[in-house]
Design brief:
CATH architecture of the largest domain: Up-down Bundle
Strand order of the largest sheet: 2-3-5-6
Protein name: Outer membrane protein TolC
Order of helices and strands: HEHHEEHHEHHEEHH
Distance between the termini: 62 Å
Structural class: alpha+beta
CATH topology of the largest domain: Outer membrane efflux proteins (OEP)
Number of helices: 9
Oligomer: single chain
Organism: Flavobacterium terrae
Keywords: Cell outer membrane, Membrane, Transmembrane, Transmembrane beta strand, Transport
Helix content: 55-70%
Family: Belongs to the outer membrane factor (OMF) (TC 1.B.17) family.
Number of domains: 2
Subcellular location: Cell outer membrane
């Protein structure tokens, strides 16, 4: 008999080590790993990267108009006509279905050597547009990294709540079993058993809803990471909040690194260069032209039956606007208004960022204090729950008091988890404003 029991235990151990790892084996995803996956896969980041590549390609002296343009051309014209010629001496020459052919081909070069410095302003603008694309890419990356981190720590909070609810269900089951035992020996009414069953069902329902929320948030994180939405994983529950952030240091970093401010300043510079290009159209444009052309003609009726020519042609073209219906003045006024608006937007953006920073820092301070408070509350609620549970088992505490202690404990866990989550979010927001998120 003993040998049989030993064999059964041994078999159970084998089954445990064989099957349990397969059940619990699940990717443990750290926040750093999630960020790296997003940097590699996220669609918005890929799109912003491609847009920057376009800006880099556009940033060239050729696109600014500084290089010559060379064109090859070929023209072949044929005609069949009924022709009649009356010469000065009165002779008449007439031919039906007279054929006339003309072939012209060659290479031509045109080079604008002066356009009021417009090409140089355009080249500077292309450089600023490349900087704009670079900053926009960094802003997209920073935003997505923040989204990943916030979603990740949201999952941490929910995972902690699920564990807390699992614990309360265990306690509720103990309460139901105790109530049933007391009812069996006649020390409790059926109402007490029913109340315990209702509370257990309520806790189970809450757990199911929490698990649903947890799974949908995992899908959301997988979406940001641009991977299979069904990918299963767990998150690391350790949440470390930096509670030593200083407003003065954050302000200094914001002035140097905030990407929104950088974009506003670049947009202002782009508008100024647009005004410069508009003013350049007041000046003359000088263009060099040269080419080598071959021309051949054939005619059935005329003084010559065929001609051919080839050779080099060259020259200079200069144009200067005199009057264009006051369009020049209107365009310059519009460009000046756009420069003024871009300057106002930069000032507005600076004020907005400072407001965001000040508000976020105040929220951060409050949340850091709440973390300390809620940690203490959870510890107190846990002790109260343990004492109440012991008294309930011996029948010295009524059901309502026990349920209150149980709910207070779960609420304390939820508030503590939420406080840590909110504090971490405040930290991420501050670092995002300061452009100081490390990845």
């Amino acid at each position: 008999m003993k040998r049989l029991k030993m064999m059964n235990k041994f078999l159970i151990l084998i089954l445990f080590f064989v099957f349990v790892p397969k059940v619990v084996a699940q990717e443990v995803l750290t926040v750093d790993e999630a960020v790296q996956i997003a940097l590699k896969n996220n669609y918005d980041i890929k799109i912003a990267t491609n847009e920057l590549s376009v800006d880099k390609e556009n940033n060239s002296i050729g696109n600014a108009g500084m290089l010559p343009q060379i064109d090859a051309s070929l023209t072949k014209n044929n005609s069949i006509q009924n022709s009649k010629q009356v010469q000065t001496n009165g002779d008449v020459r007439q031919l039906d279905n007279a054929k006339n052919n003309r072939l012209e081909y060659g290479v031509n070069l045109g080079w604008t050597i002066f356009d009021g410095m417009r090409m140089f302003a355009r080249y500077d603008q292309l450089k600023e547009l490349e900087k704009q694309g670079d900053v926009q890419l960094k802003l997209t990356v920073l935003t997505k990294v923040s989204d990943v981190m916030i979603t990740y720590y949201n999952l941490v909070q929910q995972q902690q709540l699920i564990k807390a609810l699992d614990t309360t269900i265990v306690i509720s089951k103990q309460r139901l079993k105790t109530a049933e035992n007391r009812f069996t020996i006649g020390k409790a009414s059926k109402l007490e058993v029913l109340n315990a069953q209702v509370d257990l069902n309520t806790d189970s329902s809450t757990l199911l809803k929490q698990k649903e929320f947890y799974e949908t948030t995992k899908i959301r994180l997988n979406e940001i990471l641009a991977r299979d939405l069904s990918t299963n994983f767990q998150v690391v529950e350790d949440v470390v909040v930096d509670d030593n952030l200083q407003l003065a240091e954050l302000k200094s970093l914001t002035e140097k690194q905030n990407l929104q401010l950088q974009l506003a300043l670049i947009n202002k510079r782009v508008a100024e260069l647009e005004l410069k290009q508009t003013k350049a159209t007041r000046y003359p444009t000088v263009r060099l032209n040269t080419g080598y052309t071959f021309v051949e003609t054939e005619s059935s009726l005329g003084f010559t039956s065929s001609t051919s020519s080839k050779g080099l042609n060259y020259g200079v073209t200069a144009t200067m606007p005199i009057f264009n219906g006051f369009s020049q003045n209107r365009n310059e006024k519009i460009a000046k208004i756009q420069v003024e608006n871009s300057s106002l937007v930069a000032q507005q953006q600076k004020q907005s960022v400072n407001v965001q920073l000040a508000s976020a820092y105040q929220t951060y301070l409050t949340n850091v204090e709440l973390v300390k408070l809620e940690e203490s509350n959870e510890s107190i609620a846990k002790k109260n729950m343990e004492i109440t549970l012991d008294k309930f088992k011996i029948g010295t505490v009524p059901t309502i008091e026990f349920r209150n202690a149980q709910e207070n404990y779960i609420n304390a866990i939820a508030r503590n988890s939420s406080a840590k989550f909110q504090a971490k979010i405040s930290e991420i927001v501050l670092q995002q404003i300061a452009g100081n998120i490390k990845f």
